[in-house]
Specification:
Elements (H helix, E strand, L loop, with lengths): L2 H20 L47 E3 L2 E3 L112 E5 L10 H15 L8 E3 L8 H4 L9 E2 L5 E3 L2 H7 L18 E3 L15 H4 L7 E6 L7 H9 L7 E4 L7 E4 L1
Parallel strand pairs: 3-5
Antiparallel strand pairs: 1-2, 3-10, 4-10, 5-6, 7-8, 8-9
Length: about 350
C-alpha cells in the first residue's frame, strides 16, 4: 500500500471514531465483521424540577408569603406571640386585646399582670406604687402593700408633724382652746413644753440649757429643733428676750396644740393658763419644779440666784424655780398658783437636786 493510501485510511477511521463518540445511540465497530462487538452507552437520568409541568422545558420557583409559617424538612417555625390579639399566647400573663390592655389595669400593655412594686398604678386597687426599691413606708411615701404611708393631711399625727387636722389644715379652723394647723402640718403657734428629763443646776450655762432642750425636740422628730430655747435667765440675760420669736403676735401652745397664751406678752401678763404641763412626748406633769431664775416680768431676779451662772451643782448654791402646774381643785390653791405666777417664780432651791426646764420654740 502506498503512503498516500495509508494516510487516507487513517483519516477515515479517525472521523468515524469521533462521530460514534458524539452520537449516544451509535455503536462503534472495530476489527473485522466476524469478530465485531457492540457496546451501548447507558441512558443518563435527568432530574425533574417538581415545579415544572410535564413537557415543560423551563423551571419556575414559588416564593411563600413572608407572613405565613415556613417549613424546613419536618420542623415548622410558628409566628411570634402577638400581645394585643386577645389570646393568651405562651409567655403572656394575660391579654384583653390592644384596646383593653393598660398599665392602669390588671393586664398591662405588655401583657404582663400588674403587681405591687412594678411602678405602675393599678387604678382602684393600689393607692400608690413607687416601683422596684420603693414602697418602703417612709413618710409621704408608699407602703409595701401599695397603700399610702402617713402623710400631711391624713388626720393622723406623725412624729415629724406638729399637728394634722386633715381637711381643716390651712383653713384657720380649730377647736376651742386650741390653735389652728397649717397646710404643712405645723401649728400656727410657737410650741412650748416642760422637759421630760431633769438636771442639776450644772447646766453648762444658758447655752448648755438650750442644747438640752434642742436635743429633746430633735429626739421626737422636730424638723427645726435648733429653734428651741430654754426659759431661763442668768445675771444679765432675760428669759423673755431669749425666747422672743420673729412673730410676736403668734400664740403659744403645748405640743398637742392646746393654747397656753395668746402671745409672749400675754404669757408674761396673764401666765400659761392651766400650766405648761406636757413634755415633748406629750406626757403630762403636775407640780414639777423647773429651773428659771426669772421673775413674773420675764426678767432675771435681782439677786444672783442662778447656780453661779448655771454651772454649779453645789449644795451651797441656789436658784429660783417655778412650779409648772397644780390641780384645779381645790380652787383656792389653783388661784394662788395663777395669781402669783408661780409657774416661773415659786421659790429658791439648792442647785444639787435635778429639776426640769421649760423649752420654747422661737
Amino acid at each position: 500500500m502506498s503512503p498516500r493510501t495509508r494516510c487516507t485510511l487513517a483519516l477515515s477511521l479517525t472521523i468515524l471514531a469521533c462521530t460514534a463518540a458524539d452520537s449516544p445511540g451509535l455503536a462503534m465497530t472495530t476489527g473485522s465483521p466476524a469478530s465485531s462487538e457492540t457496546t451501548d452507552t447507558p441512558p443518563v437520568d435527568v432530574p425533574t424540577d417538581p415545579t415544572t409541568t410535564s413537557g415543560s422545558t423551563s423551571s419556575t420557583s414559588t416564593t411563600d408569603d413572608p407572613i405565613s409559617s415556613t417549613s424546613t424538612g419536618d420542623a415548622t417555625t410558628e409566628e411570634p406571640p402577638l400581645c394585643g390579639n386577645a389570646v393568651v399566647d405562651p409567655g403572656e400573663g394575660c391579654d384583653l386585646g390592644w384596646e383593653n390592655n393598660s398599665d392602669l389595669g390588671y393586664c398591662k400593655a405588655d401583657c404582663t399582670l400588674a403587681t405591687c412594686g412594678d411602678g405602675d398604678l393599678w387604678v382602684g386597687v393600689e393607692s400608690c406604687d413607687e416601683g422596684p426599691g420603693g414602697n418602703l413606708g417612709e413618710y409621704a411615701g408608699c407602703m409595701p402593700d401599695c397603700s399610702l404611708a402617713n402623710f400631711c393631711g391624713d388626720g393622723l399625727l406623725h412624729p415629724s408633724e406638729a399637728c394634722d387636722a386633715g381637711e381643716a389644715n390651712g383653713t384657720g379652723q380649730h377647736e376651742e382652746g386650741f390653735v389652728a394647723c397649717s397646710a404643712t402640718c405645723n401649728l400656727d403657734a410657737y410650741r412650748v413644753f416642760i422637759s421630760s428629763t431633769e438636771l442639776t443646776g450644772k447646766l453648762g450655762g444658758l447655752t448648755g440649757a438650750d442644747l438640752h432642750c434642742q436635743n429633746l425636740a430633735r429626739a421626737v422628730g422636730w424638723t427645726e429643733w435648733t429653734r428651741v430655747r430654754a426659759w431661763l435667765s442668768d445675771g444679765s440675760s432675760a428669759a423673755k428676750d431669749r425666747v422672743a420669736g420673729s412673730k410676736p403676735e403668734w400664740p403659744l401652745a403645748l405640743v398637742n396644740g392646746k393654747r397656753v397664751a395668746n402671745s409672749l406678752a400675754d404669757l408674761i401678763t396673764s401666765g400659761p393658763g392651766y400650766g405648761i404641763d406636757l413634755d415633748e412626748l406629750g406626757e403630762p406633769w403636775i407640780k414639777a419644779q423647773v429651773w428659771t431664775n426669772t421673775a413674773v416680768t420675764g426678767e432675771p431676779f435681782d439677786s444672783p440666784q442662778h447656780c453661779a451662772g448655771w454651772i454649779s451643782e453645789s449644795l451651797s448654791s441656789v436658784a429660783w424655780v417655778g412650779l409648772n402646774a397644780v390641780p384645779k381643785l381645790p380652787e383656792a390653791d389653783w388661784e394662788d398658783w395663777s395669781d402669783n405666777h408661780w409657774w416661773t417664780s415659786y421659790m429658791t432651791k439648792t442647785c444639787d437636786k435635778p429639776r426640769h426646764l421649760y423649752c420654747f420654740e422661737i
